[in-house]
């Protein structure tokens, strides 16, 4: 399933970066965006995941996010999420960049996470900026109104919106300075996130895609592994442990 080349590159890797998309949460029961059961099936992104859609119909958009928040409350991280926590502990430098807003990487235990598209459990008032980060409060609300009268919105990045200050720069920096870059469970259609694997490749990283099917990014990847992330990632960690992979630092200590 994994090439010798990948293990060679991982053996000498100082910095490993992983980009995840909705696919890594699919085995937790969170519908992806563009798959058959995809969230966008019922609605089109421009209908709901845009500021204009929210201003036009705040209740509909708020209801859609509450439907997803409820769903996320009921699910839990899957073996793919937990394998990334183990991977983070195997390398001195590990950056997890996620497009997902479902908070499952944090719940699984990863530390160094860049949430490119925000976090569905967080909200703020568009008028006074007051934060409403208590997800249970959000779930109780029907009409997203702040005490100041302003509308309360989910703290996620909608289409046409800039990514959170610093998040994009940090992600670009990590992709430009890593030895191995994994793209896991993303269709690679949403930019600028989908440009990260190419940025990594242009800067000399060994790029690996893990997906249940080929994507728009597969053609330039060094390695494409077709399989479920909840199965492939634990197998990768197992293989690394078999080769008694230890933190590079320890190895340097023993040399
Ligand atoms: C912006 C949050 C300016 C809300 C989301 C070029 C450059 C810059 C912008 C653009 C550009 N071209 C077009 C644009 C505009 C736009 C865009 O990309 N449009 C697309 C549709 C063409 N981008 C924007 O508007 C972005 N903002 O550009 O600002 C800027 C410019 C430069 C630098 C900085 C800023 C903002 C985009 C963010 C939109 N917000 N979500 C919410 O969630 O409600 S996007 C949404 O799509 C989610 O975040 C999701 O994560 C993301 C990507 O989708 P995927 O995660 O890939 O999910 P998908 O369902 O598509 O695929 C799942 C994959 O998993 C599949 O491949 C499937 O095979 C696989 N899979 C399934 N099961 C498994 C699996 N794999 C492994 N194991 C399994 N078990
Ligand atoms: Zn307010």
Automatic annotation (TrEMBL):
Instruction: Name one molecular function that GO assigns to this entry.
Output: protein-malonyllysine demalonylase activity
Residues annotated as binding NAD(+): 21-40, 99-102, 185-187, 211-213, 229
Q: What is this enzyme's EC?
A: 2.3.1.286
**Where is the Deacetylase sirtuin-type domain positioned along the sequence?**
1-243
Q: Per the annotation, how and in what number is the cofactor bound?
A: Binds 1 zinc ion per subunit.
CDD domains per record:
SIRT5_Af1_CobB
The UniProt entry, under InterPro entries, shows: DHS-like_NAD/FAD-binding_dom (IPR029035), NAD-dep_sirtuin_deacylases (IPR050134), Sirtuin (IPR003000), Sirtuin_cat_small_dom_sf (IPR026591), Sirtuin_class_III (IPR027546), Ssirtuin_cat_dom (IPR026590)
Give binding positions for Zn(2+): 125, 128, 146, 148
Domain description from the entry?
Answer: 2 residues (Tyr-65 and Arg-68) present in a large hydrophobic pocket are probably involved in substrate specificity. They are important for desuccinylation activity, but dispensable for deacetylation activity.
**Could you name the active-site residues?**
117
Q: Which function does this protein serve?
A: NAD-dependent lysine deacetylase and desuccinylase that specifically removes acetyl and succinyl groups on target proteins. Modulates the activities of several proteins which are inactive in their acylated form.
Q: Which cofactors does this gene product need?
A: Zn(2+)
Homology family? Belongs to the sirtuin family. Class III subfamily.
Q: Where is this protein found?
A: Cytoplasm
Q: Name one GO cellular component term.
A: cytoplasm
Which keywords belong to this entry?
Cytoplasm, Metal-binding, NAD, Transferase, Zinc
Q: What protein does this entry describe?
A: NAD-dependent protein deacylase
A family per Pfam: SIR2
**Into which EC class is this enzyme placed?**
transferase
Q: From what organism does this protein derive?
A: Candidatus Thermokryptus mobilis
Q: Which gene encodes it?
A: cobB
